Amino acid sequence: MVFFLLPIVIFCIFMSIRTLFIPNTIKGKIVSLDNFFYLATVYLTLIIGFGLIYLIFELMGMSVLREANNAKHYSIFETSFYFSSMMLFSVGNGDVIPHGIGRFIAAIEALIGYTLPAAFVARVMFEREK
């Protein structure tokens, strides 16, 4: 069952990012409540999606995250989603460290986190010119 969830989560992440490249998805003013909720929804989808990827690997028995300096132990659920948000919004704090395939997943998430704001601004400006 866990192997069934991974492609679904990856598909949802892809579809969330894909919405930036579909015509006529962002309309109206440059700064609007609709645009804010649109971007917040994309970020939330990515955080949950990547958090589920980390969680699925952990549930499969493949350790992809570990806490640094024998820090206070939180549940893997909390750690997965915390690490996902840290990687998407920044490079992380260093209190949770990816290893193994987790490094590759974290690099992809960081790349998306860095390029998403630029893609969103470009999309809004492109729609404004029409």
Descriptive overview:
By secondary structure, the protein is mostly helical. 67% of the residues lie in helices and 5% in strands. The chain is built from four helices and two strands. Strands 1-2 form a two-stranded antiparallel sheet. It is globular. It starts with a helix and ends with a helix. The relative contact order is 0.15. The mean pLDDT is 80.
In short:
The chain contains 4 helices and 2 strands; from the N terminus they run H-H-E-H-E-H. With 130 residues, it is mainly alpha-helical.
The portion of residues assigned to helices is 55-70%
Average pLDDT for all residues: 80
Low-confidence stretches: none
How do the strands of the widest beta sheet line up side by side? Answer: 1-2
So how many helices? 4
**Structural class by secondary-structure content:** mainly alpha
C-alpha Rg (nearest Å): 16 Å
Count of DSSP strands: 2
The SSE string, one letter per element, is HHEHEH
User: What's the overall geometry?
Assistant: globular
Tell me what portion of residues adopts beta-strand conformation. Answer: under 5%
Largest sheet: 2 strands, antiparallel
